Amino acid sequence: MLSEPNRRAVAIIKLAQATDAAAIVRLTSQLGYDVTAEQVVAGLDRRGDSCEVYVATDGDAVIGWIALGVEDPFVAGRGCRIEGLVVDEKHRSEGIWAELLAQAETWCRQKGLTEVRVHSNVIRDRAHPFYERNGYTRIKSQHYFTKTLRT
Fold first, then answer.
1. pLDDT value at residue 9
2. d(Cα 91, Cα 93) in Å, to the nearest integer?
3. Residue 36: which residues within 8 A CB-CB, separation 6 or more?
């Protein structure tokens, strides 16, 4: 089994398909987020020139995913945002995060984007050093607020 610490997985990185939705839901729940297969499929249907989703597979099993979007905020300017990145807890420390990140950076370069941005929850202790080891610089910590609007 590939669960040995630091053992390199043989993952195939490919574009996510609607048939991957159940696996994406399962993996997303490992980060504490509740999404449905319908929400995942709807997100996959919105892909286009400005967003993409890749999955890492081991045989037929989806063991990770990364979602990317082009963003153009008022001050920061045009760049690529990693909207989500997760690897199955049984396959962490196998290099799959790095493989997904490399695919993301390739996609960004193909889009002519020169900056990749990622928000990482302060509780993701293992993620922060990973990003730093891969050349990312921590620029700030902040709170995130949301409000549901009545229509």
1. 54
2. 7
3. 25
Strand pairing class (51-58; 61-71): antiparallel
Q: Which domain holds residue 25?
A: 12-133
Q: Among all chains, which residue has been given the structure tokens 């891969």? A: 134
SS3 call for 21 = helix
Residue 151 lies in a domain: no
Instruction: Please state the domain count of the chain.
Output: 1
Q: Tell me which residue has tokens 């990622």.
A: 118
The answer to whether 62 touches 27, Cβ cutoff 8 Å, is yes
In angstroms, the CA 149 to CA 111 distance is: 34
**By percentage, how much of the chain surpasses pLDDT 90?**
55
| CA atoms in the 13 A half-sphere facing the CB of 132 | 7
CB 84 within 8 A of CB 92: no
pTM: 0.80
